[in-house]
Design a protein that fits this description.
about 450 residues; alpha/beta; glycerate kinase, domain 1; Rossmann fold
């Protein structure tokens, strides 16, 4: 079943597209590099993550502008792209669970690093997803041990910083270990942030940044999340060992810069809404916590217009004009034993649709990942309004049961509510865009 999009939904789609355009990695790299002149050293590139291809393109274009070329490099991406220079080798990794391709990329990187001369300067461009794409196990662990750990974390309900604190104990190129392997070569670390607060040690588990988490704290986290009963015994033993720390200069790049973030995407979405004639507000508080709870609270706040922890109010301007609210961050879903299919954005949208059902006239909510993929599905997220819930029921699916079993994909697909964009080539967490049209 497919429903005709409302004018409000069209506004949200335009704003989402504007947000993605603002964090397109090659343009973001161009902005970051605009006043930088390449050093006289041979320059090698290591680009890994969902935005690896675009970041590599930006670096190659910068070098060409200064009549320079990369001396060599690797791109590790979740999907094929055309390497922007013949000196760069493209390898594919697996995401969100590391597999044979990730192991091959990890091993190839380790072998290739020894070929980089000490006189070279290395530009490391990292974006979200690189942890899994470059995941090879640390000594003493098997590939199965590491993959099982990643699998458990995906369904644990832990946030990205907590999950990556554990991944750093099992994956080879995390927690400053790439910087240690490159030492004493100078390193410039370019980051496209997919984490709240843009902490370089959390982005892709910090390949060139030492780890702030202690072994004791990681063990305590695993205990509270009830992971110790499920993790392989070799992984539990590995949790006892300390990771490289920020105080170790060799485990940290000489220079680190954030080239784009969720805030950049939020600002672009807000500006687009204003250009389309709407009042718009970017919400200051990052979107966190359980996806279903967040979806219900956002929808309820929109119905009331004011009075929620998300800070929605009715002070954006004269009555009668549409209001757009922009949220950014990353929610979580604790799957437990659920076997449904979906992602955190789809679950947020379905929970919001339940609140909007039959009474959210003039309200629409878009929830989507900026990478174009929500969970293990082909959708970036979904757009819902007051008729989505009944449309799912009309298709013969119980939306409440789907929500309870984390099976949002099938339910939203039946209502024509999924947002399918294809992989975007960037990754700065999630966006939730909501529109309220008074008098509709």
């Amino acid at each position: 079943m497919s429903l005709s999009p409302s004018p409000g939904q069209a506004v949200l789609r335009h704003c989402y597209a504007a947000a993605l355009n603002a964090v397109e990695p090659s343009r973001a790299m161009a902005r970051a590099l605009s006043e930088l002149v390449p050093s006289s050293h041979p320059i090698f590139l290591i680009c890994a993550g969902k935005a690896a291809c675009g970041m590599a393109k930006g670096l190659v274009t910068w070098l060409a502008h200064h009549a320079r070329e990369p001396a060599g490099g690797m791109i590790v991406s979740p999907e094929a792209c055309r390497a922007p220079h013949p000196a760069l080798t493209l390898m594919l990794g697996d995401h969100p669970l590391p597999g044979a391709r990730s192991r091959a990329a990890s091993d190839s990187l380790g072998a290739w690093l020894n070929e980089i001369p000490f006189a070279a300067e290395v530009h490391v461009a990292i974006s979200g997803g690189a942890t899994a794409l470059l995941a090879g196990p640390l000594p003493g662990l098997s590939m199965a041990d590491m993959t099982r750990t990643f699998e458990l974390l995906l369904s644990s309900g832990l946030d990205i910083e907590q999950s990556n604190a554990i991944r750093k104990r099992v994956a080879r190129w995390t927690a400053g270990r790439l910087a240690l392997a490159l030492h004493p070569r100078p390193i410039v670390n370019w980051l496209l942030s997919d984490v709240p607060g843009d902490d370089p040690s959390v982005i892709a588990s910090g390949p060139c940044v030492g780890d702030r988490w202690s072994s004791r704290d990681v063990l305590s986290l695993c205990r509270s999340a009830r992971l110790l009963e499920q993790l392989p015994s070799a992984v539990i033993a590995a949790l006892e060992f300390e990771t490289p720390k920020p105080c170790d200069a060799a485990a940290n790049a000489e220079r680190t810069a954030i080239i784009a973030s969720n805030q950049v995407a939020m600002d672009a979405a807000r500006n687009c809404a204003i250009a389309l004639g709407c009042h718009a507000k970017a919400m200051a508080k990052p979107l966190t916590g359980a996806a279903g709870k967040a979806g219900r609270e956002i929808a309820q706040a929109l119905l009331q217009v004011r009075g929620s922890r998300f800070g929605i109010d009715d002070t954006l301007g004269e009555a009668g004009r549409a209001r757009v609210f922009v949220y950014g961050g990353e929610t979580t879903v604790a799957l437990k034993q659920a076997t449904g299919r979906g992602g955190r954005n789809q679950e947020l949208a379905l929970a919001a649709a339940q609140v909007l059902a039959g009474r959210g006239v003039g309200v629409a909510i878009l929830s989507a990942g900026t990478d174009g993929r929500d969970g293990p599905t082909d959708a970036a997220g979904a757009i819902v309004d007051q008729v989505t819930w009944s449309a799912i029921q009309g298709a013969g699916i119980d939306p409440l049961r789907a929500l309870e079993h984390h099976d949002s994909y099938r339910a939203l697909d039946a209502a024509g509510a999924l947002l399918r964009t294809g992989m975007s080539g960037t990754n700065v967490m999630d966006l939730v865009l909501a529109i309220h049209q008074p008098g509709v």
